[in-house]
Request: fold
Amino acid sequence: MLRQVYRRMVTVIHRDEEHRLNRRAFIHVLFLASAAMGLASVPLATLARWSQRSGPKKAPERGGVPIARVAEIPQGESRNFNWPTEADPAVLLHLPEGGFVAYDRRCTHLLCPVLWDKTMDHLVCPCHDGHFNARTGNVLYGPPRRPLPRIDIEVRDGVIYALGGSPRGVKTDGA
Amino acid sequence: MAPERVHPKAESHLWPLLSMGAILALQVALLQVAVNRLAWGMYGEVFSPAVATLALSLVAWFLYRHLDRESL
Reply:
């Protein structure tokens, strides 16, 4: 079976057999390429399903999950963390003017991780140059159409806790 | 010299190529998204693009079978 498939492919693309590269043969090659990509996606889907089953599914703790101590993050700096599960990247910002905000770190365009650019004062997605307002999470420009989901935080006794969050794509007030 | 004769159905036979090409382009894009998410450690988000890629392979297979029967 595999030998037949290989022979047909080789026959199609061999230099001396160019006359056989008709429409049918070309569609055959396209189909084989499509099948190869389909097969390649199987381990990816299996891995995703497996990680969803075996991954930590801890529910947010009452009173919040501690992220960092206030003193650990100077003004204008950021700290990456995972919330509500280890598979959900998030970012905590200490704004230059003071105050903390936290967002889901996945860009709402194609889920690349956004980075804090303190010189621009934006959260930037390096994949397609999407920019988000650091104070509201709303899109400033670029391909994303939805704001970054915000994570509610609370500061108690010098420790920052993650409490909850807005659903993906809900526009927040301001900006 | 007589002009080259074109089969009257030749134009209508363009759609299989276009369909297959569109399916392949979509698959490449979806696989790229899946691998990108995988590279960033977002394993849970890989499932939907991967399954969509697989589903498109099935569509391509049905199309291919259909074309085989139609003897294009």
Q: What stands out?
A: The two ends of chain A are 61 Å apart (CA to CA). Residues 2-54 of chain A form one domain.
